[in-house]
Design brief:
251 residues, alpha/beta, Rossmann fold, Alpha-Beta Plaits, 4-stranded antiparallel sheet, 7 helices, 12 strands, 21% strand, globular, disordered C terminus
Length: 251
């Protein structure tokens, strides 16, 4: 893949969370968020004039609880909800998912395999099978068949997770919305992600002549690659030095 270019003050940064900034865990609640990461993200956000946002499949409420950074722009649930750089919350008007129907159909599997985990996010429903990976094919066929019979829904595969969500919204649409608002407008987008859910974001960033960066191995439409989470953090730390205020030397 191509070598990452030298950073520019005109860049805008979009960062996935799980698998990009923090290690994946067996369940969504088992992740570990360290203080060094929070400091790194907060410092970079300030140094780029606010042109940094997190783009996640988690809900905004969950991310605020985990990160405790209420001033940070964050898009949650694959762009269905979004906080801008001024603290305004934007939520798309969607029809609620009939989660009870999915839970009912999954009940026999849940009883047989305690490692299967259902996460109610609000506007989306995620089925995690990291502890029972052999169920992936069965779950995909079952959920895909159900989603095809329901108007306005789509099935989004991820790393050992399948998510039912409203059609028409994804991480790419979230990035596009940010790019139409200050301080992102007029900048070149940079998006870092690791999962199938991030491919929508990569595609949009490529179309906008930005820099799409895939974390880890696997097929991707991203144009650049970083080896893993530690590589991401190291790269972000180096970016801080490139985005020091121009008047620092004169202060």
């Amino acid at each position: 893949m191509k070598r990452l270019p030298s950073p520019s003050p005109s860049w805008a940064y979009f960062l996935d969370v799980d698998g990009t900034l923090i290690e994946l865990a067996d369940t969504p609640d088992a992740i570990h968020v360290d203080h060094l990461l929070l400091t790194l993200v907060d410092d970079l956000h300030q140094k780029v004039g606010g042109a940094l946002a997190l783009i996640s499949g988690r809900s905004l409420t969950n991310l605020d609880h985990r990160l405790k950074m209420p001033g940070l722009p964050i898009a949650g649930q694959h762009g269905l909800e979004r906080r801008d750089n001024f603290g305004n919350i934007h939520r798309h008007s969607i029809s609620p998912i009939s989660s009870e129907l999915f839970v009912e159909r999954l009940a026999p599997l849940m009883a047989r395999y305690p490692g299967l985990h259902i996460e109610h996010k609000g506007a989306t429903l995620a089925i995690h099978y990291r502890l029972v990976p052999h169920l992936g094919g069965c779950l995909h066929r079952l959920l895909k068949g159900m989603v095809l019979q329901m108007k306005g829904l789509q099935l989004q595969p991820g790393k050992r997770v399948l998510e039912i969500k409203p059609s028409g919204y994804d991480k790419g649409s979230a990035i596009e919305e940010y790019m139409m608002q200050p301080p992102f407008i007029g900048r070149r987008p940079v998006f870092i992600g690791d999962d199938l859910t991030d491919e929508h974001g990569f595609a949009v960033v490529n179309r906008l002549d930005g820099y799409s960066i895939k974390v880890g191995v696997g097929r991707t439409c991203a144009h650049y690659r970083l080896n893993g989470i530690e590589s991401v953090r190291s790269w972000l730390a180096k970016l801080q030095l490139c985005h020091e205020p121009e008047n620092k030397e004169n202060s």
